[in-house]
Structure prediction request, 515 residues.
Amino acid sequence: MVPNPPPSPQQAVQFQKLQAHLSELWRPSDQFDARDCQVLVIPSLSLDQAELQKIAGVHYYEERLLFSLIRLRNPKTRLIYVTSQPLHPSIVDYYLELLPGIPSSHARDRLTLFSTYDTSHKPLTQKLLERPRLLQKLRETLDLQWAYMVCFNSTPLERQLALSLGIPLLALDPDLLYWGTKSGSRQIFAECGVPHPDGTELVGNADDLADVTADLWERNPQVQRLVIKLNQGFSGEGNALLDLRPLAHLAPGSSPHSQRVQGIVAALQQLRFQCVTETWPIFEQKIHQLGAIAEVFVEGDHKRSPSVQGRISPLGDVDILSTHDQILGGPDGQIFLGCSFPADAHYRLSIQAMGQAIGENLAAKGALERYGVDFIAVQRPEQPLTWDLQAIEINLRKGGTTHPFMALKLLTEGEYNPQDGLFYTRKGQTKFYRASDNLQKPCYRGLLPSDLMDIIVSKRLHFNSVEGTGAAFHLMGCLSEYGKLGITSIGNTPDHAEEIYAQVVSALDQATILD
Prediction:
C-alpha cells in the first residue's frame, strides 16, 4: 500500500497557498508560451504496488510521460524529469528528435534528468522522499518563482513532495481522491444523472460483500453475472467475475436471503479473476485493505468500451480533450490493452456530453487536472445504429489514453475539435490513431531501442513529419527485458492507422523470427 501521511494544519494551509500560484504559472502543454517556466515531471505510479506488479515491466511505465517533453517547444521552458532508474540516452534522444520546429540540441540543453537508482517496489515519489540529498539537488535546480510539478497520479506522497520542494502541484488535491474510486465514481454518476450499472455500497470484508451482493441480485433477479471490483483497481486488473448461473437454485424467489448469502460466500472463492496470477486468499486480503463493491455485469453480443478524457484547469475551466474506443483483453474483456482515437461517431458526442457534466461536477468539488470516464456501449439488436451507454468508472489521473494523445499533438501540432470530436492538423487534415502499451511477444526479447529503430526505419514505418503518418514508440526500455513495447500508429483514416499498426507488428515479427 502507498503510505498516507496526513498533513499538519500548517502544511494544509501552505499547500493551498502553493496551489493558488498555479493560475499564474499554468498554460496548456500545447500552447506556445515565451515566459520563463520550469516543469518538474514525477512519473510515479503511486498506486497499490501489489496490484501494479500484475503488469509486466511496470517499472518501465515511468517512461510513458516522456511525451511531456512537448513542453520544450517553448523556448524558455526548462523541464526536470525524474525516474527510478536512469533513462537510456537513445530513448531521450528519440523523444527530442520528435519535437517539431525546434533543434533537438536546444531542447536538450533545457532538459535535466535525475534518477533514484532504485528499482524496488515503491512509488518513485516515496523513493525521492527517502533521499534528502537528492531532494536538495532538486531544490537547487528549481527556480521557485516559475516552477511547478506534474505527476501521473496524485496522492499524499505527491503533496508531501510538493511541500518539501516548495512548488505547486498541477494535480488533484489528495483529499479528493475518493471521487476517483469505484464507489466515489458511482456517487458522481448518480449526482449527474449519468446512466450506470446497478451496484452495491463499499464494504471491507468478504461476509459483508456476500450480503450486499445478495441484495444486488435480489434487485436484479434476471442478472447472470456480477463484477467484483476492488475500490482502487488499475487497468481492470482488480476486477473479478462472479457467475451466478451455478447458483440458480439460490436465485431470488427460490430461497431465503440467508441461504443466498451463504452460497455467495462459497462462490466468492471460485471467482474468475482478470489477472491470471490472482488467487482468492490474496484478493480477500485486498478487500480488507482497499474495500470492494459488486456491480451488475453489462451483457451484450456487440459491446464496446469507449472513454472520454477531460481536463480541469487551475482557472476552473472544464475542457474535453479526446474520446477513445478502448481495446480490452483478459478472460472477460476487463483489462486495458490499448485504444483507438476517436471513439465511434455513433456515441462519440454523447459520451463527450456526459464527460463534460462529470467534469463540471468534479470542478465544483475542487478537482484539478486530468480525468477520464470509462463507459460500456451495447448495440441494440433492433436498432443497429443505436448504442446503450453505461458509465463504469472515473479515473482522476493520467491514464492509458493520455500519452498516445500527447504523442499525436506532439507530432502533428494539431487540435481536437469538440464540435465533431475529431482531430485536425493546422492544414485541416483529420488524423486518427491506434495505440497500445501491450505489444508483447517472447520473440521481441533482446531487442534494443537501436534495433527497433533499425527495423522500423528500414521498413519506412517511423513517423514521417512531411506525410503526418507513421508510428511513434514508448516503453522502449521495456523491450529487451520483457519483449514489450508501446506504440501509437497515426494515419489519415481509422483503417490507415490500423494498417500501420499491423505493418509494425509484421516487421517486428519477421525480423525476430529470422533471428
Observations:
- The mean pLDDT is 92.
- The chain is about 35% helix and 25% strand.
